[in-house]
Amino acid sequence: MYTYRGLVFAVLASVLSVVQAEGDVLSCPSTRPVENTAAREPSGDLYTRPESTVPPAKRTKRGLYVTAKDAHDMVALDPARVLFIDVRTRGELQFIGMPTMIDAHVPFLIESAPPQWDEVKSTFRLAANPRFVADVDTRLAKKGLMRDDVVIVMCQSGLRAAGAADALTDAGYTKVYTTIDGFEGDPMAEGPHKGERIVDGWRNAGLPWTTRLDRSKMYGLD
Q: ∠ at Cα 142 (141, 143), nearest 5°?
């Protein structure tokens, strides 16, 4: 039989042994794999879509492709380290809307002056924006970024974005991603809604967008 004092010492010894054992466990190296935080960086391979899944007309020299959802996640992860550019025309932004997360509007193609008519497409002809790279450079510098930082370009459905990305790559940019489904997405190929842009894209994914344009982001108003 323990005396009262002996019983107290026995309980204390038992508690100390448990604490010591827990301390030993806590001090042991963990066998759990360390999370690869580099894969979560905006430029990580986590977001790059395989080129085999990208239509030939949307492929680029650099080969960096993201979906609208990928683009959203990349910007949300570290907005200070990504430049997100909308390369559509003013009219598209004004009448269709734009992502709220866009840093700036820099059109890759602009309305020709004087206006010219495209007989084949039955619309006004667009011409290459001669200041495109220079104006992206300006937006990049305003954000404190360099040409080796991540740039994401978005157009209607990914076609113009490919040309914009190649123009920036030719100018020395190294991490230009194209949003392969764009803002409106691809048109339905068949069925009762053939031609309607309800397949994919930023807006169809339910990502944040607005028709209220922010003057500070608009092209040519600085």
A: 90
pLDDT at 23 over 80: no
- Contact yes or no for 84/99 (Cβ under 8 A): yes
Whether pLDDT at 219 is above 90: yes
155/208 Cα distance (integer angstroms) = 16
Where does 57-115 have alpha helices with state H?
68-77, 90-96
d(CA 127, CA 157): 18
pLDDT of residue 198: 85
DSSP class of residue 196 equals -
Distances (CA, A) of 174 to 39, 109, 154: 18, 22, 17
Q: Tell me the pLDDT tens digit for each residue of 48-73.
A: 999 999 999 999 999 999 999 999 99
Q: Give the residue from 146, 147, 154, 142 showing the smallest Cα distance to 108.
A: 154
pLDDT mean across residues, the chain: 84
Tell me which residue of 101, 83, 103, 104 sits closest to 147, measured CA to CA.
83
Instruction: List the structure tokens of 19.
Output: 């604490």
Euclidean distance between CA atoms 136 and 104, whole angstroms = 9
Name residue 153's beta-bridge partners. Answer: 85, 178
Distances in Å between the Cα of 162 and the Cα atoms of 18, 56, 87, 165, 168 are 63, 10, 10, 5, 10
Give the separation between CA 165 and CA 154, rounded to whole angstroms. 10
Asked if 124 and 115 touch (Cβ cutoff 8 Å), the reply is: yes
